[in-house]
Design goal:
Elements (H helix, E strand, L loop, with lengths): L2 H18 L14 H33 L4 H65 L9 E13 L2 E11 L6 E13 L2 E7 L11 E4 L2 E9 L5 E11 L2 E9 L1
Antiparallel strand pairs: 1-2, 2-6, 3-4, 3-5, 3-7, 7-8
Length: 253
């Protein structure tokens, strides 16, 4: 026997064993369903989904039927109660509006009364000044010819504003018109020192406000603006005729 024949048969045997051994490649097996079976399974899934949807719909209708099962008489009673509550609400709302309007009217009336009282107080003070003037014309009075100052009043209406009021009269029968000027001297304390401020200032352009021209009497009032930081102590009113002092009167704050 030749060597090729001897080794050739053994080589074939080894190859056959290798193919049948564990080292041989793995083979996976897939099961293929026929298409009619697949169609039946899909139809079954669709039927199951439809059954679930139908059950959900029936359950919703059942719950809706239970919620709609309210007694009509109860609904009518609730509507009547709601209408009654709405009527009472409208009634109370109208009463509140009326009360608010009445309150506004009362507040407005109080403001008007306060303004009237203030005006009456001012008018009363003026009447007293006029009474003092007419009393000076009675025979029992001095009745002498001359200029007099009646009821000089001064009050601070702001930290640096002084309000003054006075009545200037001419005694006797008043046969001539008096023409002159009013001069106000304000005594103040500034930086710890006493000082006097004269009104009107010749450079202020307010000379016309202090002119006097009357036959029997003239009422004079106004507001003086003082420098910042001063403290007023007294006010002196002077009546000048042709630059000459006729009469003067002082008033303390």
């Amino acid at each position: 026997m030749s060597l090729s024949k001897l080794f050739g048969s053994s080589l074939r045997l080894k190859l056959w064993r290798r193919r049948l051994s564990v080292a041989a490649p793995k083979v996976s097996i897939r099961h293929h369903f026929p298409w009619p079976l697949r169609l039946v399974m899909a139809a079954a899934m669709l039927g199951l989904a439809g059954a679930v949807a139908l059950a959900t719909y029936d359950l919703g209708r059942h719950l809706a039927g239970r919620s709609n099962g309210i007694d009509p008489a109860e609904v009518s009673s609730l509507r009547e109660q709601l209408a009654q509550v709405s009527t009472e609400r409208d009634k109370y709302s109208g009463s509140m509006d009326t009360a608010e309007s009445q309150l506004q009217i009362e507040r407005s009336a109080q403001k008007q009364l306060a303004a009237q009282v203030k005006n009456l107080v001012t008018e009363n003070a003026r009447l007293k000044e006029d009474l003092a003037f007419f009393e000076s014309l009675l025979p029992t009075s001095t009745g002498s010819q001359g200029i007099a100052i009646r009821r000089l009043v001064a009050e601070m209406i702001a930290p640096n504003q002084l309000k003054y009021r006075l009545l200037v009269m001419q005694g006797g029968k008043g046969e001539r018109n008096f023409v002159g000027n009013l001069q106000l001297a304000v005594t103040v304390v500034q930086d710890g020192k006493s000082a006097m401020i004269i009104f009107p200032d010749s450079k202020s352009g307010e000379l016309d406000k202090f002119k006097l021209a009357f036959q029997h009497y003239q009422r004079v009032e106004g507001v003086l603006t003082l420098p910042e930081g001063v403290t007023m102590q007294a006010l002196q009113a002077r009546i000048l005729e042709k630059g000459q002092l006729r009469v003067q009167q002082a008033a303390k704050l």
